Amino acid sequence: MSQTLLAGLARTSVPRSALRRFLGLDAIVTGVNGIAYLAASGPLAELLGVGRTLLLGLGVFLTLYAAGVAWLASRPQPPALGVRAVVEANLAWAIASIAALALWLEPTTAGAVWTLLQAGTVAGFAALQWAALRAATP
What is the C-alpha to C-alpha distance for residues 21 and 55, in angstroms, rounded to an integer? Predict the structure, then answer.
């Protein structure tokens, strides 16, 4: 990813700021998703065609994960090891989502579309975070 494209996406030419913004956006999107799974697990389970218990567990995990990512985003210089862990976790989540869809989930059409959209979004966060980390690391 070019430095110019990265700066445009982050609306800053400072690599550290770009990294913090991408982490912050990840934390917000993940946190909202987790809270939605917690607050509306019944209706969402019906809409998506997955178990309510699965959504509750994912809601707890995503909310805690979002808090950790938000903490990293709040650091003036997020530690590279922590950012790499987030990138790897995001990639693992995207791969696991597609594997779950192919191997054991039997969602509704809305659930299948949602699973693919969130996997793509999370993979996109990983790519942006990795590119920003590389740009910010001397």
Answer: 27
Do the Cβ atoms of 12 and 61 come closer than 8 Å?
no
pTM: 0.86
pLDDT tens column, 112-135: 999 999 999 999 999 999 999 998
The rounded radius of gyration (Å) of the Cα atoms in the chain is 16
CA gap 59, 26 in Å, rounded: 15
- DSSP three-state, residue 120: helix
How far is 60 from 34, CA to CA, in rounded Å? 7
Number of H helices, E strands in the chain: 6, 0
Residues 69/26, Cβ–Cβ less than 8 Å: yes
Q: Are 21 and 138 in contact (CB under 8 A)?
A: no
Q: Which residues contact 50 (CB under 8 A, 6 or more apart)?
A: 105, 107, 111
118-137 burial, b at 16+ Cβ within 10 Å, e below that, comes to: bbebbbebbebbbbbbebbe
d(CA 82, CA 33): 22
